[in-house]
Amino acid sequence: MRLRTVTAGPAVAVFAAVTVALSALPAAASPGVRPSGSSLPALSAALLAAPPAVSLANVQTHLQQLQTIATANNGNRATGTAGHTATTTYLQQKLQAAGFTVTVQTCTTCTGGSAKNIIADWPGGNTSNTYMFGAHSDSVSAGPGINDDGSGTASLLEAALTLAANNPTMTNHVRFGWWGGEEQGLIGSKFYVNSLTSAQKTAIKAYGTFDMIASTNGGYFVTGTDAVAVKLREYFTSISVATETSTECCSDDDSFRAAGIPSSINSTGASYTKTSAQVTKWGGTAGAAYDPCYHKACDSYPSNINATSLGRWANAELYSVWTLTTGTTTANDFSVSLSPSTGAVTPGSSATATVSTATTSGSAQTVALTSSGAPSGVTVSFSPTSVTSGGSSTLTIATTTAAAAGSYTITVTGTGTATHTASYTLTVNGTGGGCTSAGQKLGDPGFENATTSWTGSSGVIGANTGDGAPRTGTRDAWLDGYGSTHTDTLSQAVTLPTGCTSYALSFYLKISTSETTTTSQYDKLTVQVGTTTLQVFSNLNASAYTLRSYDLAAYAGQTITLKFTGVEDSSLKTSFVIDDTALTVS
């Protein structure tokens, strides 16, 4: 994984050896796991129509082969080296022997001008409805890249071989891709996508990339709303394993997403650290990286592979392939969700939420949005009022001063070939006493006092100069700007009063970058309130100090944490500089 990240997150218990019993498994480790360890987790009764289990031993055999290749080639499988050539040859031979139509595409923009992409099509199915699954076949030069991304490479290979061995009737078409040059900036997958015609891009209904799916201290991250992501979540729900949306991204999914193809990144995490809440959910060690060997020589087999997550992900991959492309024709369907799904307002003010839709089966369709349940004095509107599934709309809930205090459930309905709903809980605050605590609520808003109001990474707040020079005063907050893999955070908890009409967050942000791309978000700054993302900035937003403003009325009466997270990839620096913050209530 080339971490050009959002908080790009496009990786539970430590697995010492295949024959050693697993310890410290996630809380939900037992459902659906076959006891012998000879195959991947069995499918639950809810998924009896799903594919046969993939052989875990076979996936591990592929990983051992990738380790052997790296050991014989200066310890790595980096693009442009003999190690990567041997990797792509291994993939090509396995897939061709199984009956796939294999295209070996030379990536002329990759290192050495001779790196290979391996594209494998299984015969049959409607090619106008193609579902695509991918991983990157290269490593960094520092090590063999067994988790990053041998785990994705090997698991997808075995999923493809299992599909071929069972030879089901194909309804839709499936294509697999293994990309060179991911660690150099996703250039292999970009080369492939750029080689497609508009019609060929349109034919790909969803693309899922699998990058690092066996991290020794990882979790289960499914990040996207495309049809592949929907099926992955469906599978993990069936075996009682919780998933999250990652704040680490992006991998080769970014190349497809930039071309308008619905995409997801799926992983167990890279260099970000596991939280206590995630330990409760999955096991592992809080405060430690998901993959402590990320981009290091110790990313080797078998020491840096978690067999439990490797098995679950390989089975999830095949379940997604199988249910999207085999059997009877899939009806067009979609899902509707809200973020946030709750909000509190003072009479006379408004709240907003994002209505997200996703194509869960078949093809995209038009979804009309309506609402019900709004009380007197409350109106609900959508912008736009209809979307193509996979798109989003802004929900605005406006109140008059006559709106009665209380809690109300507003139902958002999406209507297409089917009807689906999502609920929003609206709290209208009482007006008694009015706005009794107006004013600016952030401590040390200009970073001038060196107080403990802010919590941040070492060196973020200071009397910075150069790219990090303050807008006013002598101090500010400077995140990233190192030109290497780096993460900085800055946060402050603040309590917002009720009864006020305006809750305005603002800050000045300067972004300077050495990145030269005009299309790819490599280094990113995520602005959050709690777990809700207000906005993501990147190297593409480079500018002088610019005022950024947000309405936080939905958080009236709550204690919130305002958080900035800057993530920088392995090369070409980007600086995110924040100054003159304010959270003004009136």
From TrEMBL:
Locate the transmembrane regions by residue number: none
- Name residues in a coiled coil: none
List, in alphabetical order, the GO biological process terms annotated in this UniProt record. Answer: proteolysis
The superkingdom listed in its UniProt entry is Bacteria
Q: Work out whether the entry's keyword set contains Translocase.
A: no
The Peptidase M28 domain covers which part of the protein?
117-318
Gene3D superfamilies in the cross-refs: Galactose-binding domain-like, Zn peptidases
**Which keywords belong to this entry?**
Hydrolase, Metal-binding, Signal
Query: Could you say which residues form the signal peptide?
Result: 1-29
A single Gene Ontology MF term assigned here is: metalloexopeptidase activity
Q: Which family does it belong to?
A: Belongs to the peptidase M28 family. M28A subfamily.
Protein name as it appears in the record = Peptidase M28 domain-containing protein
